[in-house]
Amino acid sequence: MSESRLVHIVDDDEAVRESAATLLDSAGYEAETHVSGVDFLETLESAKPGCILLDIHMPGITGLEVQAELKARNVNWPVIVLTGQGDVGIAVQAMKNGAFEFIEKPYRNDALMETLDDAFEKLEAHTQESSRVAAARILIDTLTPRELQVMQALLGGLPNKLIAYELDLSVRTVEIYRANVMAKLKARGLSTAVRIALAAGVQPLHERSK
To answer: Which long-range contacts (CB under 8 A, 24 or more apart) does 122-127 make?
Structure first.
């Protein structure tokens, strides 16, 4: 189990918090408990990313309101909502608000663990994708404005002659810019450069000019 697999337990019921924390600890997870939604949100800025085990019915601020605040702060950690029996309407609303899953209390331990495993797979995939996008943007930012235009033209499928025409350059100059793009993006071929540009959100030349 990775040490990075942290679960934030947000529940006003002490027995639920302690029971969940003990279960998670025994399974190799790291658990942090929060006595209320307010308590959790107050520590959010310095909190380590992880999954959130969130009770719906809490005094002061409800689980749905915590969800709304997470969305407002652009926190995309998977949320597993804990609901009482008969709270189908609230559970559905939580899912519409972006919850990863909901589990009815009292929950089965194996069901919770299976859900957490799935949630962490999603979180880790999102983290990897975010890292890939950030790395791509760093590489794209090394391009000069003209080199970026050449990259955009390549994304548009234009050959060197048409790129030269579109940018009012000589074919030889386009070839030089293209070589510079490949070097700066550390691309072994055009397909690698295209993947990097797409990951960074670069738009093809003609789409950009529409």
So the answer is: 122/78, 123/49, 123/50, 123/51, 123/77, 123/78, 126/76, 127/49
